[in-house]
Amino acid sequence: MPCRDEIRVHLRKEKCLSIRISKCLRIAVQG
User: Fold this and answer.
1) Phi, psi dihedrals of residue 4, rounded to the nearest 5°
2) pLDDT tens digit sequence for 1-31
């Protein structure tokens, strides 16, 4: 069970990271 929680947290971090990267790319394209 703790393993599953760890995976869930990791997926949440990955989602945050991908959102941050897409924002950076969008700003770079506009700039």
Assistant:
1) -65, -40
2) 577 888 788 788 888 788 888 888 888 888 7
* Chain CA centroid to CA 5, Å: 17
| Token duo for residue 31 | 């700039």
Sign of CA dihedral 8, 14, 20, 26: negative
What is the pLDDT, as a whole number, of residue 1? 54
| Residue ranges making up the domain that contains 25 | 1-30
Q: Looking at the 3D structure of the chain, how many domains does it have?
A: 1
Cα–Cα distance measured from residue 4 to residue 21, given in angstroms and rounded to the nearest whole number? 26
